[in-house]
Amino acid sequence: MLICQRSSTGSFPLSWEFPGGKVEPGETLPDALARELKEELGVASTIGAEQYRTRHRYAHQPEIADGLELVFFSAQIAAPPRNLAFEQILWERIEALADYDFLPADKELVAKLASRAATPSIPTPPNPRRAS
What is the per-residue pLDDT across 20-31, written as a single tens digit (0 to 9) for each? Predict the structure, then answer.
């Protein structure tokens, strides 16, 4: 998965996150992600299915009473990404995501991804009574 390290000068300095950002008026969620990927990584993208949705409240944002809604999608990019907005970007294996200091709002998804990656796939034995 592509992960991005935030700048050392902004909020949550040097924390890791998934690329994306805020939805602008009139945008759909997939349109917003495609725009953000173009702005942050200089890539055209094809946005796939929604993968995960959650809400998170940051204590430093009391004006957002219901918290932030985060929606994660699968996406394919058409070219290698260029770092246009981050301290660094890198491709990482899902199993290793828990080793990074992710934003608090992303930690729930990172934990779910890591637990799925740690669960071995157990093949289902064939059913001798079932015709194929």
Answer: 999 999 999 999
| Total domain count, the chain | 1
Residues in a beta bridge with 53: 71
The CATH number linked to 106 is 3.90.79.10
pTM to 2 decimal places:
0.80
- C-alpha closest to that of 16 among 95, 84, 81, 110: 110
CA-to-CA distance for 47 and 29, rounded, in angstroms?
10
In-domain check, residue 130: no
124: in domain = no
